[in-house]
Structure formats: C-alpha cells, structure tokens
Design goal:
99 residues; alpha+beta; YaeB-like fold; 5 strands; 27% strand
Length: 99
C-alpha cells in the first residue's frame, strides 16, 4: 500500500445513489416509475418560487409536484396530474400516416 505524501490530494470514486421517492398519496405504479426515471436522468424541474424546495417536473404525460430534501437523497411526491396536451399537436399526430 502506498503512503500518501503530505499535501497530496486523494480522490475517491463515490457512486451517487438515486433519490428515494416517498409517495404521500396513492399514485399509480406507472407514475412512480416515470418519476423515478426522470429523477435518475437528472431532471430537477421548475422551482416553485413561493415554496422553497418544491418543484414541478414534466414527464411525458404527467406533471409531478415534489419536495426535494436539501441533501438530494429523498423526494416527496406530493401530487401528479395529466398534462394538458395541445389540441393542434394532437390533431397533427393523429393525422399522420403510418407509412
């Protein structure tokens, strides 16, 4: 084992653990899975300017309202709701042929 010289910096690889999600209501397993994927991908969300620590995170079909602990290790899922899809975008998507 090598001795470290005085004043020499030593770096260790620390594996970052994904945040623990605590569901404060009874959200579906699909919603919890999507939120977990978003958090693991590094999504932080839009901060709620009136409530420190609270964020809205946009998923594919849902918006999640969460509280993130300052340590970043735990996230409380407060609410989730379906995104309002743009009616014009929906019509364009439905009007495309599968060719």
């Amino acid at each position: 084992m090598n001795a470290v010289a005085e004043g020499e910096l030593v770096m260790y690889a620390v594996e970052k653990m994904p945040p623990v999600i605590e569901d404060l209501r009874t959200h579906s397993s699909e919603q919890l899975s999507e939120l977990r994927i978003l958090l693991n991908a590094g999504f932080v969300g839009r901060p709620d300017l009136r409530r420190p620590g609270f964020y809205e995170i946009d998923g594919a079909f849902n918006v999640y309202y969460v509280f993130r602990f300052p340590s970043g290790h735990k996230v409380l899922l407060v609410a989730a709701w379906q995104k309002e899809l743009d009616p014009v975008a929906e019509m364009v998507a439905c009007g495309r042929s599968a060719a």
